[in-house]
Amino acid sequence: MKMMSAIVLCIISVAACTQTSNISGNQNAEAVASYYYRLPGTIAVDENGNEIPPIIDTVYTVYVITKDSVDHWETACIKGKYFDAYATLSSRDGVVLESAEATDEKINIEVPPQSRLWIVSLSPRVDSKEPKPEHGGLAWIEFAIAGKKYLCPIKKLIRVEGIPSV
């Protein structure tokens, strides 16, 4: 019995160290997010010709798998910042996100039968009223299905290569 427990512990440890994560929508909703840093393409200068430091813009995209159709996308919170959510229903049955960092990490998003993949673009909130998070996690997205609100934790956040600015 002790030997069996040790083998199970080894298998779990090895599985935890792999570089590929699979997201397959086993619950009512699952979410992962990608982000990249967008830098301005031209160098801004002041009236004296001195370079103005560029403002780094972080672009977030959330991939949400749901079993039901979403009526309304409410808001999202990532790293304490609040965003409005704008979703598109995808017809793809999967997405692979590859890390832009040296870890070579990949996330495979697999859409099970009878489920939907939503690609949600986030835009920083412009109003001063920020929702009170009902979830203690670092990142979450809120949406409504059949009039009922759901708060879905974003399980993973991965930095990907961005589109170069011109």
Report on the architecture of this protein:
- With 166 residues, this protein is mainly β.
- It has one domain.
- The chain contains one helix and ten strands, in the order αββββββββββ.
- The strands form two sheets. Strands 2-3-8-5-4-9-10 form a seven-stranded mixed beta barrel. Strands 1-7-6 form a three-stranded mixed β-sheet, with no helix packed on it.
- A hairpin with a 7-residue loop joins strand 6 and strand 7.
- It is globular and about 60 Å long.
- The N and C termini lie far apart (63 Å).
- The model is unreliable at 1-26 (pLDDT under 50).
Q: What are the defining features of this structure?
A:
10 strands, 7-stranded mixed barrel, single chain, 1 helix, globular, mainly beta, 3-stranded mixed sheet, 166 residues, disordered N terminus
Structural class: mainly beta
Integer average pLDDT: 76
**Topology, number of strands:** 10
Helical percentage: under 10%
Any idea what the radius of gyration is?
19 Å
**Overall 3D shape:** globular
* Sheet with the most strands: spatial strand order: 2-3-8-5-4-9-10
